[in-house]
Design goal:
The protein has seven helices and 17 strands. Strand 2 (29-31) and strand 3 form a beta hairpin. With 244 residues, it is of the alpha+beta class. It folds into three domains: 3-54, RNA-binding S4 domain (Structural Genomics Hypothetical 15.5 Kd Protein In mrcA-pckA Intergenic Region, Chain A); 63-122 and 208-230, Alpha-Beta Plaits (2-Layer Sandwich), CATH 3.30.70.580; 128-202, Alpha-Beta Plaits. It is an enzyme of class 5 (isomerase). GO terms for molecular function: 23S rRNA pseudouridine(2604) synthase activity; RNA binding.
């Protein structure tokens, strides 16, 4: 049975589907010696190479969570000295699920399971992400109401969401979509600049007991809940996912 090329690459544990698409677009993937393109199907027996190298043999899935500190970049590019892969220094090849801005901190997942990456990133499935955000100056109730209702940013209109003020210039927000730098752009549209942003929860997983800069593997119970949450995952528009 044939399968889509990006799924085939992701399921090997080499990278996520999104990154696989980037490799394909950059003309770095061949099938049986021929240059591949997006939408290509892989048939049994086909030889797929990335940068001239065969894909790794599929390994047991790994799922871990990191309390990312500021200054670490959510990229697999090892030429970036602040890349998250070297920071975690895990023994197998893994990649982040979604992203946190370099200046942001908090919870992020890493894995070698390209299939679960795709399911979690599908924002149409309403997977919650919770953040604590500090702004450069105090805000009023009107700001909170506007954030709750949805804000027009360059990427489009944000969905209504939960927002609660916790201090004169700090609020808690729960998102179910993941436009790039969404919270920062929402605040900027209303005349505020984010000075600190911390993700404290993704779905059923929180930062509880995980110190900044530390990581741990998922427990079987945590993984079981996540697998259940993404079981009915449905397709969503390109470009949406677990950003901030």
């Amino acid at each position: 049975m044939d399968t889509s090329l990006n799924k085939y690459i992701a399921e090997s544990g080499f990278c996520s589907r999104r990154e696989a698409d980037e490799y394909i677009e950059q003309a770095r993937v061949t099938i049986n010696g021929e240059l591949a393109w997006k939408g290509t199907r892989v048939k049994p027996g086909d030889k797929v190479l990335v940068d001239g190298e065969p894909l790794p043999k599929k390994k047991a899935p790994v799922y871990l969570m990191l309390n990312k500190p500021k200054g670490i970049t959510c990229t697999t590019d090892r030429q970036d000295k602040t890349n998250i892969i070297d920071f975690v220094n895990y023994k197998q090849r893994i990649f982040p699920i979604g992203r946190l801005d370099k200046l942001s901190e908090g919870l992020i997942f890493l894995t070698n399971d390209g299939d679960i990456v795709n399911k979690i990133l599908r924002s149409g499935n309403n997977h919650e992400k919770e953040y604590v955000v500090t702004t450069d100056h105090p805000f009023d109730l009107e700001f909170v109401k506007k954030m709750r209702a949805g804000v027009r940013i360059p990427d489009g209109m944000t969905k209504p969401c939960f927002v609660k003020q916790e201090a004169p210039n700090r609020f808690r927000i729960i998102l179910t979509q993941g436009m790039n730098r969404q919270i920062r752009k929402m605040c900027e549209a209303l005349g505020y600049r984010v000075t600190a942003l911390k993700r404290t929860r993704i779905m059923n997983i929180t930062l509880a007991g995980l110190a900044p800069g530390k990581w741990r593997l998922f427990t079987p119970a945590e993984l079981a809940v996540i697998q259940e949450l993404v079981k009915e995952s449905s397709k969503t528009a390109d470009g949406e996912g677990m950003g901030e």
